[in-house]
Amino acid sequence: MSGAGDGASARASAGVRALLGPVFRFVSGRPLLRQLGRYAAVGGLATALNAVLFLLFRPWLAAVPANVIALILTTALSTELSRRFAFGGPRAFRLREWVQDVGTVAFYACYSSVVLLALHALTAAPTPAEEAAVLVLASLGGGLLRFAVLRFWVFDLRPARGDDPRFPGGEPRCSTISPPST
């Protein structure tokens, strides 16, 4: 049984496809842009979760400790989601994953702590919302650097050396196309 709303829904869906179709066609032939888009979606969710956790911890903790705890809790989740969703799912070398996780936490802890300390030096008494906003902005800059590290080092897409005749130069370690749907 179809209702009167079904036609409106179909027209809206067709409108969205017509509007976004050229974007999807442009991105479909560019694996790096697809990965960057997926990484940005994961990063946006992780940044939002980090901001929420920061604001939850902030009434009991100073800005820097609240940020570091929120950061530690969101980094592992963000890295795993990026691995699965943005970079096609294959595991990187364990040492690379470990170094990347530790390096990411250390980088963001130092980077965001400096940003918070600078905010406190420039502003007499910033509110937790202002602190969270500065952390979100800092996360955008750090996220681009992290994407490059993940894309070109941790989830290295260059072919591995091997003798599989199906893959000249070796079997690829990581896919540059979308991960299979489940």
Automatic annotation (TrEMBL):
Enumerate the spans annotated as GtrA/DPMS transmembrane domain. Answer: 38-155
Q: Which domain of life is it from?
A: Bacteria
Predominant cellular place of this UniProt entry's protein: membrane
Where in the cell is the protein located? Answer: Membrane
Give TM segment ranges.
Answer: 39-57, 63-81, 102-122, 134-154
Q: Which InterPro entries match?
A: GtrA_CellWall_Glycosyl, GtrA_DPMS_TM
| Lipid bilayer topology | Multi-pass membrane protein
Q: Which family does it belong to?
A: Belongs to the GtrA family.
The name of this protein is GtrA/DPMS transmembrane domain-containing protein
Organism of this sequence: Pseudonocardia kongjuensis
